[in-house]
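To the wet lab folks,

You asked to see what we're planning to order before we commit. Fair enough. Below is the target structure as tokens, and below that is the sequence we designed to fit it. If anything looks off to you, flag it before the synthesis order goes out.
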């Protein structure tokens, strides 16, 4: 039976997951019974409607079924499948897959996540994802759907006759260039030979095959890795996973042969692209998991899998936490780590934080090297020590193959990773040792031309000469101290094969000297003054080329880092974001040092990155320094993880952050849920007949009324009602009065306009002094025109109104000449008031003629002062300005060329701090 459709084409009966409802204990799954196709011809069979039913079965002993591994695609659910007479929307990619997979002879029993899991039920989805390992392990077969045939894939997958146990050894011999004796073997050997005879078209097809979206998707890794049997299907062609693995070996063999023949540059590019594929890693993880199940090897930890698929590789997900959840099934330490998928929280940061903490607690502190900056925008609020596992992370400088146990460095000696309890999961409390404070850093090493490379070496040599002036006995052997000159640029590591590294041998000094010599010749004008000198220099360069290349190859592992020297004279290479004043530390159990940035007070730190520090890479610092505790937090100077999120009904995004003591004091009503375990306060869902906007506003107002009535407890509200402020990012209009808004930690919107005049003496700025009877900041200096943006207004409305009311400026002139120039964002936490202030200030400029003089109109401004830039700067340094006016003024300085990199060493720090990422939702969700 095919569902009936209304006149607009939408089915009249929509499928509901009410029957059967899966138990929430994860004991059962749904299986799709895909009915056989209809029609007399292949075309009619393909086009006939998709029909199925859903059957519930226990996961412990399920009825026989297959599972589908595929990609959802990027489109909406525009197609339909008939589920027992009702219509269920599916994606176009799944529609295509099902039409190829269904049989004309019998029904197919198959598990498909898009249909067998209620994707709109976060609780069911969470429960089912937690048993994903069991689902794919229990499946009789996993069908990997790569999509319709294209790019030569059908031709190169037409080798299904190869798969049987007897042929596997034969195929292995083919790869060793032995002579196959049967026709099938000769056909497969021809597949290898084609890469040599007509390599470009074949390799292009291989590249296109590996670019199929299935190979880029995280979930596919465990889907094919956990099952007993898997087949790849591309259009109508089918091949077993074992043969795909052998085909990969065949192509690798051909690529190696072609590379040795020194092909043309165009071919070299194709060969390089052909080797950049996820398929080899995916199949390698499957093999390792199968061998783990057989007790033949240890398998891969979660950290090993994360490193494999996110370091210099692209692995994609739709839901960001699936970067972690999608690999849990394959991780042999998943049970020990205790990471449980949770799809009920729209904020991905807790998932990443919990996973990072669990991995470090397990002893793998090297995870910290993968916390790299800048973080992905959706994860900007992550604690500084937590990796975002975005695609194409950089390899750590000491990266080696994940199966090598003989690591080159042991900075932490024989110590083990030791964590200490903290008040929040976002704060990493870890024991370790302070090495020293960084005194000077030079520019990043980014490769570049000969001149750039020589400049990098000269910068490092200057730091070396500075270190030599230090008298601290940081080395036991003076000769070893001198070796830092050539060991530091390569991180004391040298190539020892395809995947191995060793400590730099003494020959590296010879290579270093030749490298410098070649670079000095290369930057010489015309290679010399005359023909004789030029010929001699050419000869030297040819002679120096091999040691130069060897040393530069080692240097390439540290690109993006920068040389440093500490106050005591330690030399090393540090993460690119390191600045003077940061500290070098060694954590207990760590192989390498890391860089931390002390925050206000010096008791807490922000994580910066990894480091090589010459002279302490073998545990020396453990005997020289006392062990201490480091509290590593977010990059801001307070921790959002210790606060309570303010949530709206059905919206897991935080709209505010509330201080714990404030949560305990606020007079919550029955319209709110206060969850102390997960640290959130949420407005309860509105009744079905209630308007959600009205419901939320009424709930907040009841609490606000009680706050205003209790003036003794909440002194910052002054016992007064105030104008409403909009809750930014809400899907519908929600507001809270201005005075109590910071208690709820919601974002505030302000508008500031700087009025300035160009005079013969230079640029001058109109600065108002606030009235001394105001509740807030009495008598302090302010921005020319400023005000809070009311709930019903936009920033421009505020500026126009305040320009007239506060400064008596002609409205027509303001409307015509005021320029919107951006915004300043920041977050402030006031522990005395128990309030959090996420703030966005919309910034405007107004150039005014000398004849236009602002005058106080209301009682909020005492007087206007026309001040020079020097006078304004001095007033800011004396802290005469209201606090939030300072970033607005600094932004004005930057935009008008008053503050530049040439006249301020803090220029970049100021730029980055003027626009801090806000921890709250700032815009409604799509569709609202």
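Sequence we intend to order:
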């Amino acid at each position: 039976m095919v569902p009936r459709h209304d006149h607009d084409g939408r089915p009249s009966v929509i499928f509901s997951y009410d029957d059967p409802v899966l138990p929430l204990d994860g004991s059962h799954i749904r299986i799709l019974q895909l009915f056989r196709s209809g029609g007399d011809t292949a075309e009619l069979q393909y086009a006939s409607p998709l029909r199925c039913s859903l059957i519930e079965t226990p996961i412990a002993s399920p009825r026989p079924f297959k599972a589908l591994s595929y990609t959802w695609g990027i489109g909406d659910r525009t197609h339909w499948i008939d589920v027992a007479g009702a219509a269920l929307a599916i994606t176009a990619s799944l529609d295509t897959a099902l039409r190829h997979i269904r049989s004309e002879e019998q029904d197919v029993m198959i598990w498909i996540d898009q249909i067998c899991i209620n994707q709109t039920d976060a609780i069911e989805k969470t429960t089912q994802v937690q048993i994903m390992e069991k689902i794919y392990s229990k499946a009789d077969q996993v069908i990997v759907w790569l999509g319709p045939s294209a790019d030569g894939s059908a031709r190169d997958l037409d080798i299904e006759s190869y798969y049987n146990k007897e042929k596997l050894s034969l195929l292995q011999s083919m790869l060793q260039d032995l002579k196959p004796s049967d026709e099938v073997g000769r056909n497969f050997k021809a597949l290898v030979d084609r890469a040599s005879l007509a390599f470009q078209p074949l390799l292009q097809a291989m590249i296109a095959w590996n670019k199929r979206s299935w190979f880029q998707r995280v979930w596919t890794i465990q889907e094919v890795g956990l099952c007993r049997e898997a087949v790849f299907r591309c259009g109508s062609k089918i091949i077993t996973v074992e043969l795909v693995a052998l085909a990969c070996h065949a192509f690798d063999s051909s690529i190696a042969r072609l590379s040795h023949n020194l092909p043309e540059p165009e071919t070299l590019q194709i060969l390089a692209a052909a080797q950049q594929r996820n398929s080899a890693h995916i199949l390698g993880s499957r093999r390792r998991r199968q061998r783990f199940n057989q007790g033949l090897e240890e398998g891969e930890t979660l950290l090993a899998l994360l490193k494999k698929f996110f370091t210099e590789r692209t692995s994609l997900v739709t839901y960001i936490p699936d970067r972690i959840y999608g690999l849990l099934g394959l991780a042999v330490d998943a049970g020990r780590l205790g990471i449980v998928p949770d799809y009920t929280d729209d904020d991905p940061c807790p998932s990443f934080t919990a996973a990072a903490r669990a991995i470090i607690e397990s002893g793998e502190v090297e995870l910290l090297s993968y916390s790299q900056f800048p973080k992905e925008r959706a994860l900007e609020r992550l604690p500084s020590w937590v990796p975002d596992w975005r695609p194409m992370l950089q390899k750590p400088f000491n990266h080696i193959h994940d199966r090598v146990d003989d690591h080159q460095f042991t900075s932490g000696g024989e110590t083990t990773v030791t964590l200490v309890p903290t008040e929040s999961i976002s704060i990493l409390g870890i024991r370790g040792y302070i090495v020293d404070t960084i005194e000077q850093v030079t520019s990043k090493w980014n490769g570049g031309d000969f001149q750039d490379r020589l400049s990098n070496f000269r910068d490092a040599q200057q730091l070396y000469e500075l270190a030599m002036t230090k008298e601290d006995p940081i080395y036991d052997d003076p000769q070893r101290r001198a070796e830092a000159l050539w060991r530091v640029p390569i991180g004391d590591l040298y190539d020892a094969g395809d995947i191995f590294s060793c400590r730099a041998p003494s020959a590296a000094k010879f290579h270093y000297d030749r490298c410098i010599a070649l670079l000095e010749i290369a930057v010489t004008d015309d290679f010399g003054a005359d023909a004789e000198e030029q010929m001699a220099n050419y000869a030297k360069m040819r002679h120096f080329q091999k040691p130069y290349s060897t040393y530069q190859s080692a240097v390439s592992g540290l690109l993006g880092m920068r040389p440093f020297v500490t106050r005591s004279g330690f030399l090393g290479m540090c993460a690119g974001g390191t600045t003077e004043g940061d500290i070098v530390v060694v954590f207990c159990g760590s192989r390498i040092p890391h860089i931390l940035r002390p925050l206000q007070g010096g008791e807490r730190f922000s994580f910066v990155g990894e480091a090589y520090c010459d002279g302490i890479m073998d545990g020396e610092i453990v005997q020289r320094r006392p062990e201490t505790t480091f509290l590593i937090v977010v990059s801001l100077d307070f921790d959002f993880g210790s606060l309570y999120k303010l949530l709206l009904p059905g919206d897991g995004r935080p709209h505010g952050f509330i201080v714990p003591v404030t949560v305990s004091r606020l007079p919550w009503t029955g319209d709110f849920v206060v969850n102390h375990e997960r640290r959130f306060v949420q407005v309860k869902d509105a009744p079905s007949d209630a308007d959600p906007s009205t419901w939320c506003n009424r709930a907040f107002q009841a609490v606000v009324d009680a706050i205003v009535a209790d003036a003794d407890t909440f002194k910052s509200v002054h016992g007064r009602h105030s104008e409403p402020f909009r809750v930014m990012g809400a899907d519908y209009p929600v507001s809270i009065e201005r005075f109590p808004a910071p208690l709820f930690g919601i974002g505030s919107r302000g508008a500031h306009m700087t009025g300035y005049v160009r005079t013969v003496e230079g640029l001058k700025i109109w600065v108002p002094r606030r009235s001394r009877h105001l509740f807030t900041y009495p008598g302090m200096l302010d921005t020319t025109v400023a005000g809070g943006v009311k709930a019903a207004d936009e920033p421009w409305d505020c500026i126009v109104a305040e320009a007239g009311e506060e400064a008596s400026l002609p409205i027509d002139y303001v409307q015509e000449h005021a320029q919107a120039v951006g915004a300043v964002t920041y977050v402030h936490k006031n522990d005395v008031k128990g309030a959090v202030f996420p703030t966005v200030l919309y910034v405007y400029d107004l150039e005014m003629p000398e004849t236009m003089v602002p005058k106080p109109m209301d009682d909020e401004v005492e007087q206007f002062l026309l001040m020079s830039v020097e006078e304004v700067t001095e007033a800011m340094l004396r802290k005469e300005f209201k606090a939030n006016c300072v970033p607005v003024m600094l932004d004005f300085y930057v935009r008008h060329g008053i503050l530049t990199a040439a006249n301020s060493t803090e220029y970049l720090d100021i730029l980055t701090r003027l626009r801090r990422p806000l921890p709250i939702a700032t815009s409604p969700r799509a569709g609202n």
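Structural context that might help your review: Confidence is low (pLDDT under 50) at residues 153-178. The chain has 31 helices and 30 strands.

Thanks,
Computational group
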